[in-house]
Design goal:
2 domains; 68% helix; Tetracycline Repressor, domain 2; single chain; mainly alpha
Amino acid sequence: MGRQPIISREQLLQITRAVFQEHGFRSTTAEIAKRAGISEGALFKRFKTKQELLKAAISHIDQNPPWILGLAGRIGQTSVEGELEGVALEFMQFARILMPCVLMAHTGSGDRGHRDVADGPPPPVRIIKAMTVYFEAEMRLGRIRVGDAEIVARCFIGPIMHFVMLELMHQSFEYLPLSAEGFVRGHIQILLRGIL
């Protein structure tokens, strides 16, 4: 057998995230190795288990993705509905990468959190905090009704994560043929009826 190609750790983690984004829970280390152009044995020389590989992939996901960094610039702009639709679609793209890695990394590992994945709070907590700050700012401007901004943030985030989860499990397409854009539009309209 010829010599294995050299692939950097970061390239391997990018491939891992891409495979999980495309195949969700059906992703295999065999597919990751194949796409990386290495053997599965070479993959397991770098990462002892699939969980270890996925935890490494999660730790390299941008801790402050552009959609979170852009939230401050959306405050008080155009319509609340339009801004939230944009945020929801950007968050959905981020969740499609993050969720399968997080779920698979912790499946069967006995790990109850993300403490060993990255410094600071885990991604879901950072997302809730960022959205809470956004909703608090919109409340101060009087663009939405004053209330518990964290609850509003959770109500905004939860259905989007659920939509992505069904996508990842490949169960929504056949039985619930709803586009991401159609879902986001309806979700935001229903949410806003409660907080405007």
